[in-house]
């Protein structure tokens, strides 16, 4: 299927590894030029070179700490200059899960920091990019949320920031739809990334079980009986970025292999 993304310009925060890197790769495969940002310069440059070599597209690495409002503005401004505009914004720069802790144990300072990192960071990036999307007359903003937004369990911080991300998504979608700018959120569940693979290796060394055994055990909680990979998230996001997904706006879409038992209607 041709997703009609040829020569679109995209920015991906947290694009040096994990879900962000997978999304940057898939957008580039579909013909986009992409600016990626992260805090680790070495990993950022390595990923940019890797993705450019794989896809033949322009991949621009830009250092940025998304906890810094001015750094976000500088990232977006430079990305727009080097790419020649911006059509797509992927907000993916946030630590997985946030700070652990229940109402009895969590530190309110950590909760505030987690909220700023994800919800406010995503807001700042969208605000900085919005003039370029309006100038283009078409755009997509995809916010990577997380499963704790729907199933927080007893933890406090992860659910708060993930549901905040979805609420932000809906308010942006309501306003920006008439400008041809669609905004959607994605709820990943447990996702196989480089970091998760390293965790399995450590657990294997600790327990004596093979990595394959551990992965199979983790996959049992899904209905598809396999782990969702970062590439699966990237495929969904690429479609949501496409003109073919014009009818999808303001939605929060889970992609967890059927691991959640809840129903949304």
Task: Explain this structure.
This protein is of the alpha/beta class and 265 residues long. The chain folds into 2 domains: 9-190 and 229-255, Rossmann fold; 191-226, no CATH class. The chain has 8 helices and 9 strands. It has helices at 18-29, 41-55, 69-83, 108-136, 157-176, 194-207, 211-219, 230-241, and strands at residues 9-13, 33-38, 59-63, 88-91, 139-144, 181-188, 191-192, 228-229, 252-255. The strands form 2 sheets. The protein has a 7-stranded parallel sheet, with helices on both faces. Strands 7-8 form a two-stranded parallel sheet. Helix 4 (108-136) links the parallel strand 4 and strand 5. The model has no long low-confidence stretch (mean pLDDT 95).
Number of domains: 2
CATH secondary-structure class of the largest domain: Alpha Beta
Structural class, judged by helices and strands?
alpha/beta
Count of β-strands: 9
Compute the average pLDDT: 95
Give the CATH topology of the largest domain: Rossmann fold
Succession of helices and strands: EHEHEHEHEHEEHHEHE
| Lateral arrangement of strands in the main beta sheet | 3-2-1-4-5-6-9
Main sheet properties: 7 strands, parallel
First and last CA, distance: 29 Å
- Architecture of the largest domain, according to CATH? 3-Layer(aba) Sandwich
Counting H and I runs of at least 4 residues, what is the number of helices? 8
Report the uncertain regions. Answer: none
Rg to the nearest angstrom? Answer: 18 Å
- Based on Cα principal axes, name the global outline: globular
Please estimate the helix content.
Answer: 40-55%
Residues in β-strands, percent: 15-25%
CATH superfamily of the largest domain: NAD(P)-binding Rossmann-like Domain
């Amino acid at each position: 299927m041709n997703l009609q993304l040829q020569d679109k310009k995209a920015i991906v925060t947290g694009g040096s590894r994990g879900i962000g890197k997978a999304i940057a790769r898939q957008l580039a495969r579909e013909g986009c030029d992409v600016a990626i940002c992260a805090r680790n310069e070495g990993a950022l440059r390595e990923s940019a070179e890797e993705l450019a070599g794989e896809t033949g597209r322009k991949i621009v690495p830009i250092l940025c700490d998304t906890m810094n409002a001015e750094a976000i503005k500088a990232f977006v401004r430079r990305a727009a200059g080097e790419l020649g505009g911006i059509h797509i914004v992927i907000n993916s720069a946030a630590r997985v899960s946030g700070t652990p802790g229940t109402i009895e144990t969590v530190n309110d300072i950590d909760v505030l920091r987690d909220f700023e990192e994800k919800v406010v960071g995503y807001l700042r990036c969208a605000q900085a990019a919005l003039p370029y999307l309006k100038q283009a007359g078409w755009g997509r903003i995809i916010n990577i949320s997380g499963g704790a937004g729907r199933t927080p369990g007893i933890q406090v911080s992860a659910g708060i920031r993930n549901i905040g991300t979805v609420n932000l998504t809906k308010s942006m979608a309501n306003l920006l739809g008439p400008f041809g700018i669609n905004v959607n959120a994605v709820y990943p569940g447990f996702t196989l990334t480089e970091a998760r693979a390293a965790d399995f290796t450590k657990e294997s060394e600790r327990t004596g079980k093979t990595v394959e055994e551990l992965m199979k055990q983790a996959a049992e909680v899904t209905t598809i009986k396999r782990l969702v990979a970062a590439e699966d998230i990237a495929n969904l996001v690429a479609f949501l970025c496409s003109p073919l997904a014009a009818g999808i706006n303001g939605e929060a879409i889970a992609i967890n292999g059927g691991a959640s038992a809840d129903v949304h209607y």
